[in-house]
Amino acid sequence: MLRARITGTGSYLPKKILSNHDLEKMVDTSDEWITTRTGIRERRVAADSEATSDLAVNAARRALEMAGVAPEEIDYLVVGTITGDFPWPATACLVQDRLGAKNAFAVDVSAACSGFIYALDSAVKQVVSGAVGKALVIGAEVLTRIMDWTDRNTCVLFGDAAGAVVVEATDGGSGVLSTHLHSDGSYWELLYQPGFGTRHPVSEQGIKERIPFLRMQGNEVFKVAVRSMTEVAEEALAANGIKAGDLRLFIPHQANIRILDAVAKRLGLGEDQVFVNVHKYGNTSGATIPVALDEANRQGMLKEGDLVLLDAFGGGFTWGSVLIRW
Ligand code: ACO
């Protein structure tokens, strides 16, 4: 049976660090409040010269190098992002150009913090169907450019990053075992970026009303995130007849340590089974999972045959999981 296997991982974090203490000088907040409520201690901020495609290209090069795959061998290039360089064309097309992945078809997926999981699902299905031999899947965001730096409710939570994986066909026993995706559009207003799109075209008034920036009702998001991430993890385990205790690693979307702890507790996971790096990077939306997967991989945490469960939740609302035998 044809399966899709991850043969290379890569990530890129901008150099500039913004600590909680730095934020204390910008808004009415404290290191203590941010750490206790979110677990975040610092986050990365892209340089003025860097846009999302720059971060994506750096992460992609590392993943391609690990896989031993040349850019021209990629058939499908997909980027999960909500902070593309431009409204269009797709950031994936810019990345294709920069990498020289000239034989690929390239597209973006917009599913907020679930963007990488949705993108990975599409690559897996392309590969398993035989339509595509090799795919490059990227999650990349420069969220600091859509932050309202006067809103302490949101600006302390997010950061910039990119992560990438190479997906190839294999007929062995390892690879992606299943993917599970869900959306509920009735929650769209709890987490979104109001402008400037066709609902709120560009206007001076819009800038005054700060509509180009991310808006969120944090405590409502929190509750649905915990419930949905738990359910979609259980769905993946049940679909494959696997118990939570069999997982080597659970890699959840890194939004907030309290969300991660609540989900891990409900699933009955041990501390050593849950990968956490939210303290270093904050919430980088579509980039959190591929960055975490790359860190776990390069730290030698994943051995052949290990079971790894990816689990994301984000604006839309969208959520999903991917179960992998490494
Ligand atoms: N510093 C100090 N005080 C703050 C800050 C801050 N940065 N932000 C909010 N507060 C204040 C609020 O104004 C409020 O004050 P008030 O009681 O005087 O009105 C108080 O802290 C409590 O606010 P709440 O919103 O109730 O705080 P809560 O405990 O819910 O924590 C948080 C807020 C951290 C945003 C939490 O709701 C959360 O993590 N939600 C999940 C949101 C999330 O992660 N979204 C990311 C996208 S979705 C995803 O990735 C899963």
From TrEMBL:
A single GO BP: fatty acid biosynthetic process
Main location: cytoplasm
Domain Beta-ketoacyl-[acyl-carrier-protein] synthase III N-terminal: 108-185
GO molecular function annotation: 3-oxoacyl-[acyl-carrier-protein] synthase activity; beta-ketoacyl-acyl-carrier-protein synthase III activity
Primary gene name: fabH
Protein name: Beta-ketoacyl-[acyl-carrier-protein] synthase III
Annotated segments matching region ACP-binding: 254-258
Organism ancestry: Bacteria, Pseudomonadati, Thermodesulfobacteriota, Desulfuromonadia, Desulfuromonadales
Keyword Transferase: yes
